[in-house]
Please model this.
Amino acid sequence: MNKVILFNPGAAHHNVRIPNSILQLGAAIEGKFEYEFVDGNRENDPWQRIESLLQTGEFRYFGCTAMPAMQLRQAIPFSQKIREQFPEVIIIWGGYFASNQHKSVLNSGFVDYVVDGPGDIAFPKLLTALAENQPLDAIENLIFKRDGNIIRNAREALLDQDSLPPLPYEKLNRAYSIDGYLGRTYLGRKTLAYHSSMGCPFSCSFCAVVPIYNARWRGKSAKNIYSDVKFLKENYGADAIEFHDNNFFVSEKRTVEFANLITPENMVWWGEARIDTLNKYSDDSLRRMRDSGCKMIFFGAETGNDAVLQQMNKGGTQSGEQIKVFAARMAQFDI
Model:
């Protein structure tokens, strides 16, 4: 009875994206614990699927990712049902909502542990400690309650993203066809959602990323990003990429290296950026990006009011005038 359910609560009605969060946790426990994916976006009745797994008596752990809003509509009632019907099951939440609202989550009575930020190390360590009845205090990125008090362990340094194990796409494909995650978008017929980095080096006051990563960022190498994308193109027909990084364009060198690698693949892509960061890129870098298939950049203007931008702690270099100049510059490169 040490198996794990990795649950992605439903949030989309069409153009469902690959559940990268639980996919990464699967990679972290591969070969250590048996696990099953349950994707609320792909199940007609996700609770029925979860309940049927738990009724086997083989599953001791329920891992649930939770973004604010839509995902809570399944995460909360399903966790409550598990606590009521299967009280022996240990419930572990992660994701932005769990990290930023850990007090509410742990005080709910139906969540036992919160993984605070990346779970690549914390999640398997927690499962091992629970299975072997070991102390939890040394597990970084873990929040839990002891004797009514909330214990927040130290945060780990961000890992070298190239050191992480490969994502178990083939296991996911056995549960839910990868093809069903590659939807038609503005970019292409089969658009891949991909995460190439963790965190963001800035401290905008309104952003949920800041309390988790504290202005830290680490990204995969361009070579490894390309290798993953190439695999998904050759095996599942992906022809476009959405980079869901908090800030894909932190490193100009990495971006240009990736652009050079992906150019022969004839794939279209976009990523998220800060205006003042991307505006420092050379014309040659922007040209290489566009030639490689970069069709769109999603950037935050927030406001054209300079005083409000300062209050948002946008880094002190973004201004209303810069937003307009930047938009015109992107137009020159047809981005």
